[in-house]
RNA sequence: GCAGGAGUGGCGGAAUUGGCAGACGCGCUGGCCUUAGGAGCCAGUGCCGAAAGGCGUAGGGGUUCGAGUCCCCUCUCCUGCACCA
């Protein structure tokens, strides 16, 4: 009979909650306990509830936390809710309920589901990003950003007050574009020619302009930029939220349009965000994704003089600045390309070319990002009719516009070096532009028919001939700087973080605007600024945010002056940027965190979550953390020291058989690019026939209709026809989503936990298989039966008694203790469970089970199946929870075997096995090996060349 | 195209890092028990072969007494980025 997991699990969950079993101790109560902060990525509380992917990571971190607690560690293991943002609001609109209500419902449901899985969270620390007591501090951090700037010398954030001081002292000067520059005189440097004459001192600037300069330096600033406007969602989106030209949420098309928006100056931190990755124990692939996203490239900006008639108001020759990572190839620049949107295009285009240029620009503007990507193979562009002067060769080079150069990166203009850049090469071939080699390989020949992009030796470049690429770059940059025609420069692909959304369900900005649209912070004392109650919170469908309708709420008065509140709201990611800090001091009404507690708990020792947050949450949170660090609010430069990604859990394996358009069956191995596609709004499997190119459609076939034949699966009814076998991502539309509620009801949460951990290595992607769960169910039932017996009467433990431990069992026990601890520390939970199963199998026929073995078993099982372990532990006569019971220790002496069974190989092939005493000498063992029965025929009549004995491993005899 | 990861029985996956390939679980086969159930217990289960034995870690080559593990080449799948100058 199965043990009653439902009753047992409920009982212990209540016990843990009432007794606050997993309370983390504050620094003053912790004594000399070591600390560990074990963090899960908190869930976004969608209307769908928990899916089986959540418990995977949560169980892993829970096992680790429970293990550490038993090792005497003070563990902080909290949980909370990420609940502001688009999906919650979309759900509310769909169900016709206010997002506050749906969010409350969703949180209740998530809490119920998570608590039913028995995780050892400290529930007194629960946070909810939509709680005004929480988002008050999100707004407070925004004010920190608003009141700071990035100091270019110290490479860190400082208060705006400090900047004003510097400007007043004359340490900084202001350029015509509003950017600030070090005062060369003050710094004892020679005045830069040209530019410096345009720099002005603070005192020479009007108050209005002064405010603009300051506002332009803030880490949170407003700017008119080309943004991703998503009409389907009625809001703008960050670059990170746009995938292949569509919104990540909902998959709606996104268009670029200029709008005035809040931005966070994450680009200032690009360099530190890359560099500090080295401090982190994160998966290499994830670090690489962040490096790619930030996209740092080092090179130079070079000014090219334009060959155009000078306008009367210009006192110098107009120039175009290009960015290049290969300044060593400057001599090879044979043409120039501007992005179609580049502001100088009109200035350069000749009257003869104007029409063609305008037509091309029009064509680019209407092309979606998607089309642009699809057309990437074929270069397009038009000649402007204008020329620029190559500053090294003094030769005029034609200026083109082409959509392979983007306005958003670098300077929006490139010097094209077709000999050493494949894109430029393709373009030059199409437009018959000369190609000039200026780098040759260190050895070997220049490749024919393509660009030579690798490093080499400079040739045909007077200034740098014979230099290696690295040397030549340096020489060139020095020369450019000396001539004031260029400067070494570093560019990032990363854009500043677009931080406002035209939606209701988010944190309001603690900002008011005057009539001119200038932004002012409200005071910290006015926080939290809560969302107004609104009947109609739906998006307006225009860039006008719904909060604009809250006319009373908007009004704000200070010092007799009227202002209007900012009506944009913050994006979904704001609350999750710092939640890990609030857990440390969740109820503090005075500060966002107590510095003593912060110092004690931070940084996070282990962070477990999905890889889907690689460039969103994890980049944003690191950015905020660094700002808080610079401003002295937190003590560590990085928040998450070790990070582990759990692998995706896919749906059950599916098989698909394919048919040609005419309906005849086709084998899956004749197809390529098999994938799911939306046809008539239904997800359909399609494949392209390798030879005919026909599109073939797949249909799902049952596993019973399929068998394995060689390396592939085929139809039983038609064994010549291979079927496609794969597991898909779980999705509602596929109908392959597994609901944890159902699994817990049928098998219990201990079983679900065990199954998810037993599926394979944590980081790997793996298919769900409901059929396999029964294995873990049998294991748990076996444990119950072996220790507590079939009798479910609560006080009896008939199978356990004080008894001597048989040698074999003792060895297995100590092996298990060793292996389980090692595997938990290495997060190899699948093999730890295998070892527990082995120990349990040893107990199956033992009567009685020795008490100390039963005790140890309960403790070893506790991190994995905590409910059953507590039940066993209590029924074995222990009064208190085992949550802080010391972890069992093993005796290395108990692990050694008294006799060895050694394999004997002849020429590396296994032929026999011999059993020898563990302390036998090498000669004895070799002699025994040669004498072994099945070895004899193999050495008879042959000469033994070599006898190898690998201690405690094997014997290998080499014969001629 | 670039970067990262992976490829082991019918399935999920083990293998202390160069030393008995397939631990453990599912499934399957046979048996026992039975108030017949999706319960429990025992035995077996990589492939070929009656056996001896042979063959086996995507494919091909190499290093080694010995290779799933190290080196070279090729193929397939996944994930990310993708005209980023």
Structure summary:
The chain has 960 residues and is an alpha+beta fold. 31% of the residues lie in helices and 23% in strands.
Please give the structural blueprint.
Elements: H1 5-19, H2 27-30, E1 35-40, H3 53-70, E2 74-76, E3 80-81, H4 86-95, H5 99-115, E4 127-128, H6 132-146, E5 148-151, E6 156-159, H7 160-169, E7 172-174, E8 180-182, H8 207-215, E9 220-230, E10 235-237, E11 242-243, E12 246-247, E13 255-264, H9 270-275, H10 284-294, E14 296-307, E15 319-324, E16 335-338, H11 345-348, H12 354-366, H13 369-374, E17 382-389, E18 396-401, E19 413-416, H14 422-431, E20 439-440, E21 457-458, H15 469-482, E22 486-492, E23 497-498, E24 511-513, E25 519-521, H16 551-554, E26 555-558, E27 561-565, H17 573-576, H18 579-582, H19 595-601, E28 606-609, H20 617-630, E29 643-645, E30 649-659, E31 665-666, E32 671-679, E33 682-689, E34 695-701, E35 706-709, E36 712-715, E37 718-729, H21 740-747, H22 749-758, E38 766-767, H23 773-788, E39 800-801, H24 807-825, H25 829-843, E40 849-850, H26 851-861, H27 866-875, E41 899-906, E42 909-917, H28 922-931, H29 936-939, E43 944-950, E44 954-959
Parallel strand pairs: 1-2, 1-28, 3-4, 16-18, 28-29, 30-38, 39-40, 41-44
Antiparallel strand pairs: 5-6, 7-8, 9-10, 9-13, 11-12, 13-23, 14-15, 14-17, 14-22, 16-19, 17-18, 20-21, 24-25, 24-27, 26-27, 30-31, 30-34, 30-37, 32-33, 33-34, 35-36, 36-37, 41-42, 43-44
The chain binds one RNA strand of 85 nucleotides through α10, β15, β19, α14 and β38.
